[in-house]
Amino acid sequence: MPDKDIVFATEDTYHHGYAQKQRAAFSREVLSFALGGEEYAIDILRIREILKHRAATEVPRAPAFILGVIAVRGQIIPVMDLRLRVRVAAAPPAKESRILVVTHAGEAYGLLVDAVHQVVRMRDEDVEPPPALLGGPEGEFIAGIGRPRPDRMLILLNLGALLSFTVEKS
Amino acid sequence: MTSDKAFQDFLSEAQETVENLNRTLLALDAGKVDPDLVNDAFRAVHSLKGLAGLFGVGRMASLSHTLENLLDSLRLGRVAVSAAILDLLFEAVEIYGRLMAAVSEGRPADSPEVDGFVARIEQAARAGARAQTQKRQDLALDPSILSVLSEYEEHRLRENLAAGRTLFRVHAAFDLAGIDHGLDELKARLKPLGEVITYLPTPDSGDGEGIELDVILATDAHHPAVAGAVGGRAEVTELVAGRAPLAAATGARAEEDATLRSVSRTVRVDIRKLDHLMNLVGELTLARAGVQGVLEDLRGEGHLELARRLQQESRVLERKLDELQSGILEVRMVPLGQIFDKLSRVVRRISRDAGKEIRLTISGADTELDKLIVEELSDPLMHVIRNSIDHGIEPTDVRRAAGKDETGTIWVSAQQRGNHVVIEVRDDGRGFDEDRILETAIQRRLIDAAQAADLSRRELLNLVFLPGFSTRERASELSGRGVGLDVVKTNIARLSGIIDVESTRGKGTSLIITLPVTLAIIQALIIRAAGRSYAIPLNSVLETITATRGEVKTIERREVLTVRGQTLALARVEQALDVARAGPTPERMYVVVVGLAQHRLGLVVDDFVGQENIVIKSLSGPLNAVPGIAGATELGGQQVVLVLDVAALVEESLRGEEAA
Amino acid sequence: MMAQPRGIIAPVPHRVLLVEDSPAMRSYVAAALETDYEIVGVESGFQALQALPNGHYDLVISDVHMPDINGLELAKFMRSSPTYRKVPLILISTEGSDRDVGRGLELGANAYLPKPFSPAALRELVKRFVET
User: Fold this and answer.
1) Is any Cβ of chain B less than 8 angstroms from the Cβ of A3?
2) Distance from B644 to chain A by nearest Cα, in Å?
3) Which residues of B are catalytic?
4) Rounded mean pLDDT of B166-178?
5) What is d(CA B506, CA B509) in angstroms, rounded to the nearest whole number?
6) Does B287 touch chain A (CB under 8 A)?
7) Which residues make Cβ contacts (< 8 Å) with residue B434, sequence separation at least 6?
8) To which H or E segment does residue B332 belong?
9) ipTM above 0.85?
10) pLDDT tens per residue, range C4-23
C-alpha cells in the first residue's frame, strides 16, 4: 500500500540536496527544518520518513507537548509538538507543517515541525558546541550549532534529550 | 564462518533436545528402568555435546561431556539408575535451560554453577558405580555381526543373553522406495516381542533395486512366535538359544511405536514472523474498509450495478480474510502440555525437598493457547503449585492424623470454554484458614475491623491476592523468593486473565485461572466518552447496561448503581483517565460492567459504537507507562483508538475505595 | 535437500551425501561445504540407503551414532556393495567413542573426523577425497 504521505523522495529541495554526490570532506548530513522562525536540524540517519500533518489521538496523562498517537503503516507512534517541547510559542499546524518520523532507541516517534527545508552536508569543523549562555531547560535539547556557511546557523537537536520524558502516575 | 542460519538451527535443536531429554527423564522417573529410555537420554546429551562443541558454547559442552559419561555408564550398566541420579539429571535440564537462555540473548553462557554441578555428577557416578561382575566371555556369534555393533549395542546384546533371551536373525528384503514404511511396519511387529539390537543392511544380490536387512532380535519368545509376528515377509533364524520359558509376547509397545512415523511433518516458525503476518492481515482488513468506502461512493453516485458487484467481491474478500486470520491464530496455538511437563519436574523436586508425598494429576494437557501466553503463564503457574506444596499440602504425619491419604494430591486441569481457557490448580491440603487471613489482613492494615465484619466469604478469601499479604512471616524458600500471590495475580492480569480462589478448610484449595485464548487479535467493544472513542477488550466485559442519572447513588463520595440487588461501583471513563469533558454529562448513561477476578466495576460511557476485532499495539517509549491505557489500535481511515487497561482501572478504583 | 540451485553453465559440482540425524549439525556441515559442493542431507541411515541408488555421490559423510542403522552399519553396507564400494566415506562423531571409531575404520571408512571440528578442518579433509 503506497503511502501518499511520503514526500521524502519527491520534495524538491531535499531531492536536490540528496542527489548531489557526497564528497568525503562532508562527514555529516542533517535535515533542516523551520520552527518558530529559527532553523533547526536533525541527523539524517535518524529520520525514517516525513509525513504531512495529520490529527493525532490524544493520550491521557501525557505531557502537553505530546499531541497524541498516529498510525504509520500499522505501527502506532507518539507525535510530539516540537514547538511546545523546545518552548517556542505555540502555533496551529499549517499547510507546510510536517511530521518527521525519527527513530530513537529502536522506537519510532513523530516530531511536528513548521516546514521541512533540505538536507545540509557539513564538515565536523562546521559544528560548534552549544553556547554556554544557553543554559536552562532548553539548553539540554541542543547538541550543537551548525554553520555550513558563515551566514547560516542551524540549531542541531539532541534527540535523546527531546524524547526522554515521563508520564503522570494517576 | 558459522552462519546465522546454522546458529539458529543450533538453538532450536538444542532447545528441542533438552525438552526431549526432560520427557525421557520423566518417563524414566515414572516407570521401571527401560534401557531404550536410558539410551534416549544418552543420545540427547551426546548430541547436545556435539552441538555445543561445534557452536563454541564451552560450558554447555563440558556439562554435556560429564553427563554423557554418566549416562554412558548408566546405559552400559556400570552405574545403577537411582533417584539421586535422576534428581541430578533433572537439575541438568534446568541448567541447560539457563545456559540456552543466556546464549540466545547473546549473553556469555558462563554460569559458574556448572563447575560445581559437574563435580557433583562425577561424584554421583563414582558413588553409584557397580562392581563389574560381567565376564567378557566370547560370544558364540558370527564375527561379521559383532564387528558392526557399537559398544552400546554389544552391551545390550550381552545383557539380553545374560538374561537368558534367545537371539534371532530376521532377514527381510525391501524395495528401496518402500524401505521407510516397510521398516516401520517390521519394527512395530518385532518390538512387542523383545529388544531389537541392531539392523544390518546388506546389498541386494540381485538388480540393486532392493535392500536386504538382517534384524537382530533378543526375545523370550520362541521361533514360531517370531515367525508368526513377521508373517511370511521375513525369514527367521535362531542365532543363540535362550534359557527362558515360553513367554507371551506383550503388545504394550505397539501403540507408542505407531506414533513414531509422522513426527517430522512440522516446521519451526519464529513467532515474530507470525506477528508480522498478523499485522499484514490487519492492514488488509483496513484496505478492505477502504474498498467499502469506494462502494458507498459508487452507490451514492448511482452506479448501482457496479456497487452490487463490488459488494459481492468485497464479501468474498472479507470471508477469506477471516479464514486467513483464524488460520494464523491457529498456528500460534501450542498445547499447555509444554508447561505441564515442567510442572511435574518441579513438583517432584520440591515435594522431595519438603519431605512431602505428592501426587500430581494432570488433565487437559492438549488444551491450546497462544504461544506467548503459554510462555508467560509458566512462572505464575509454577508459583501457584509451589504455594500448594509449601502451604497447602500438610506434612505426612498431619495428614495421617487427620485421616487423610498420606500422599497429597495436586490436580492441574485445563479446558477450553469458548474464547477462554480455564486452568484449575486444586489440592487436597489444609485449605485457607479464614480467621488467620482476616487477622493478617487487619494486622497488615489491608482492611480495618469494620470492613472485616462486612466481608463476604468470597471477598475474604480474595484478600490473599492483595499486595503485601502473606500468611507466613517469612516467605519460605520453597514458595519462591518471597513472591506473593499478588504477583501471580498481576502476571495473570497482564495476560488479560483473571484468577479466583475457592477453599474449604481441611479439604483443600482451588485456584482458577481464566485466560483469553489469544492476545494477538481480540474482540473489543468500541465506546465513546467525553467526545473520544476507546476500545474495551470484550474478554473482560461481563455485560452492558443502561441507566439514568437518577438511578446513580453516592456512597462515601463514590458513585454506585444497584444492579439486580447488588451494589456496583461506577467509574466515569473520562475521570478515570483525567480527560476533560466539554459540556454536561448526558442524562442517559451507558454502563460497561467489567470484571477482573472477583472484582466488578461499571465503566460509565456516553455511547456504544460497536464491536471490532482489534490488534493491540503497545505505545512506544514513556507512553507505554500511561496508567489505564493498555495500548492502541487502528480502526480504519487512519483512526487510532486507545485500548483501555481494564485491570489497571479496576485496581485504581479499588485503591480509591480504600482511600474513601 | 540442501542443494543450492545452480546455473546450467557452471561445471557440475561434486555431490556429497550427508547422513546426520541432527538438523543443526547438518546446517553446520552444509554451511562449511555448500559453496564448493552440492550437499544432499538425509537424517538417518535408512534414508541414506534410499538416497544412494538415486543419484551419484562423490563422497558420503556420516555420523556414527544414529538410531537403527548406525554409521558402522552403513560403512559395512557400502563396502560390501559392488556399486558403492569405491565411494569415499568420512565418519564424524564426538570424540570419546574410540572403540566405535576403530571399528569404523576397520569396516572400510576412509577417515574419521572427531567433533567438534572447524569448517576449515572439514573442508581440508573433504578436499583429500574429492578434487574440486
Assistant:
1) no
2) 11
3) 46, 68, 387
4) 79
5) 9
6) yes
7) B457, B460, B461, B505
8) helix B304-332
9) no
10) 333 334 456 788 999 998 88
